[in-house]
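Input record (Table S2, row 481):
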Amino acid sequence: MPTSRPLSICWLRRDLRLHDHAPLALATAESQAVAVVFILDRVILDALENSRDRRLTFIHRSLCELDSKLRAHGSMLIVRTGDPAEEIPQLAQELGAKCVYTGKDYEPYARTRDAKVAQSLFESGIDFVAVKDSVVREGGEVLSQERNPLRVYTPYRKSWERSFEPERDAAEHQVTLAHLVQAKEIPEQYKTSLPSLNDLGFEEVDLWLSPGEDAALEKLGQFAPQMHRYRELRDFPAAHATSGLSVHLRFGTISVRKMVRLALSQTSEGAETWLREIIWRDFYQDILFHFPDVVERPFQRIYDDLEYPGEQDHFSAWCEGKTGYPLVDAAMRCFNATGWMHNRLRMVVASFLTKDLLIDYRQGEAYFAAGLLDFDLASNNGGWQWASSVGADPQPYFRIFNPILQSVKFDPEGKFIREWCPELSHLEGEALHFPARASEFELLTANVELGKNYPKPIVDHATQKERAISLLAVAKSTGSE
Ligand SMILES: Cc1cc2nc3c(=O)[nH]c(=O)nc-3n(C[C@H](O)[C@H](O)[C@H](O)COP(=O)(O)OP(=O)(O)OC[C@H]3O[C@@H](n4cnc5c(N)ncnc54)[C@H](O)[C@@H]3O)c2cc1C
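Output record (flavin-adenine dinucleotide complex):
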């Protein structure tokens, strides 16, 4: 056995931090020498098409920070590249580990991978312990009175709230840092340092937010004094009034329990509303856990055969932010430039794609999945199915966002539009929200030439709204469960 003390492994995946870390806390409570391991998963990396994928920069920098922190405690991060289903059992055997601890991941790929890892470890007499960490309440914990999964958010939330116990569900899981394996105890051949992004086939890119747990904790700290105004301001993209923590939550550079504790520490409508958003996240994880086929098909089976008549060049215009509807275009350009989009805008562009352009929600979902820094299978799928009215507890199909009214209401001064559509920045009032209805004089004085430096609307909202309602109504009445 390579180390003098019985060793365990804590395998990190979506939990790149040292604070409030359930699997690492358990590992360091039960074992005197815990090796912290990360596998650069080739199965996931090879499926990424964009060598400038921002998520790789985020992960890479977060791992560098984590490694430095571990080194400051005399330990180090062990990094390997390959298929975790092979790498973890092999490493555990080679290091003579007694147990592998990890945080549960509820996505279908992860569940299959973890079952394989558990089986291989079992065959070698090594324990595999997966604990809840990335969510507050996991699938199966929040049920109806008849003990069935809940398909609608409000009853889910009420049940979540009724059965929530702060000491159990939001307690801090403190890591015993003294029980990390010391770097000098790790045999040389396992002291593999983190490969560069170039070596992995990716490029380093600029990010709009700082990766790593220090930055995440700082962001949480900045949000705390603003939280009481969350309810009032959260729908205004230019107000920057949401926490911006979704990327950190995705990679686990922040603990969701720490966020919950912050919400519970204040009594304000803002804090209550914010907690309810975190419950939405649990809700979509719950849906994915109980109904994994939502990844492929609508939650509501009656829409299984729905065929969307939308045109592919409209999809391209949507992707590029060239639809002629400024709020939609500004949102898509912001997304393309940063990999992030405000929640109100995600709802607006998703509604526009599926109900104004009549394009299958799965195309938009895939476009988001490829580019979102905070991409999370459950929330993205849930959000798209909600907006296109085919999901669990969706937006009613006859309620269709008017992209112009949404713009007037949620970007009243046009700050957000001006930032991302600078060619419109000299327009004022309604003309800015929908230049196609501006007078020739307004366009001329603002240097806007429709069809030249800003597109004419690619569809007419009123016409498309009627088409969408009848398409969905027919599908609803003819589809079968
Ligand atoms: C079409 C569509 C796609 C989406 N795709 C994703 C995605 O891939 N990843 C993702 O994390 N969120 C997704 N969301 C939800 C939401 O837009 C983001 O979580 C939110 O914008 C993140 O910003 P924030 O961290 O400032 O959130 P805050 O407003 O500060 O909320 C705090 C946290 O609550 C959670 N949350 C907030 N709103 C929602 C919601 N509607 N559904 C689920 N969780 C929520 C997030 O984890 C968020 O970080 C999507 C929404 C829609 C409509």
